[in-house]
Specification:
alpha+beta; metal ion binding; two-stranded antiparallel ribbon; PsbP-like protein; two-stranded antiparallel sheet; LSDs-like; 32% helix; 166 residues; transcription coregulator activity
């Protein structure tokens, strides 16, 4: 049969977008282009964000559309978004990923770099009291607060509502 194409549209929900993007993934939101136009709170050129809170507002938060499939176009419109009209401005990012086959020598270099990076990260986390209050590795289950964010099960449950476990 035909390969299956999976799509995740209009995610995260308006109630979860601020929590997910601003608090759990601040590095993601900071890398988006045209941030002054699209940021829902601090975008200086985002007119919708400047409307009074009592006014009728559309959801102005960022939306993520993710699709997963194959690289070959099968002529069924599998990797396209149909022409449509939105009541708000849109910024689309097209990202393509593919599997990279490494030679053994390249794989060894990558593994050595990963090991060095992890060791330096653990060393820095032990020296920085803001990362973990007890001086434990940030990956440890004993460390429940990182940079003022509570990593207890409540936060994990809220991301599970969106169909993803972080």
């Amino acid at each position: 049969g035909w390969p299956q194409i999976l799509k995740l549209k209009d995610w995260p929900s308006p109630s979860a977008s601020e929590e997910f993007l601003l608090y759990q993934r601040p590095d993601f939101i900071s890398k988006l282009p045209l941030l002054q136009y699209i940021h829902s709170k601090w975008g200086l050129l985002n007119v919708a964000a400047k409307l009074p809170h009592y006014s009728l507002q559309n959801d102005v938060g960022p939306k993520i559309y993710i699709s997963y499939g194959i690289s070959d176009e099968l002529g069924r419109g599998d990797s396209v978004t149909k022409l449509h009209f939105n009541m708000r401005d849109m910024v689309y990012l097209l990202v393509h990923t593919s599997e990279v086959k490494l030679k053994d020598s390249q794989r060894t270099k990558v593994e050595m770099m990963e090991k060095t990076y992890k060791e330096s990260e653990v060393k820095e986390s032990l020296e920085d009291p803001n990362i973990c209050s007890r001086g434990i590795s940030p990956d440890s289950s004993l460390c429940t607060k990182i940079n003022g964010l509570d990593l207890e099960s409540d936060q994990k449950d809220s991301t599970m509502d969106q169909g993803f476990e972080v």
